[in-house]
Amino acid sequence: GEPWEDYEKYEKHSAIYRIKNVTTPSQVLHGERDVRVPTSQGYEFFNALDRIGIPTEMVVYPRTPHGPREPKLLMDVSGRILKWFDTHVKGKGKEKAAS
């Protein structure tokens, strides 16, 4: 159904209503022409994470729907994700396993 027909369902599954439970550094990669998830929701999520002190990064890709199609943008997304993982994930599994 539509949000106005079943508001409680949409509210229950909305990430923004659970933002205080987020503890994981989060990367928001958004297409400016995304019709599934409006860019405004990406900014809302990013700003909320930033306000509660969660390490976060947001990138909005031009001409991009729900996922990049252009090779140059695909390369950029891949590079950013790898860099993000290197910064926020790499080595953490080893530390946890050793303790």
TrEMBL record:
Organism of derivation: marine metagenome
Pfam families with a match to the protein in the record: Peptidase_S9
Annotated GO MF terms: serine-type endopeptidase activity
Record's keyword terms, sorted: Hydrolase
Protein name per the record: Peptidase S9 prolyl oligopeptidase catalytic domain-containing protein
GO annotation terms (biological process): proteolysis
Domain Peptidase S9 prolyl oligopeptidase catalytic, chain residue ranges per copy: 1-91
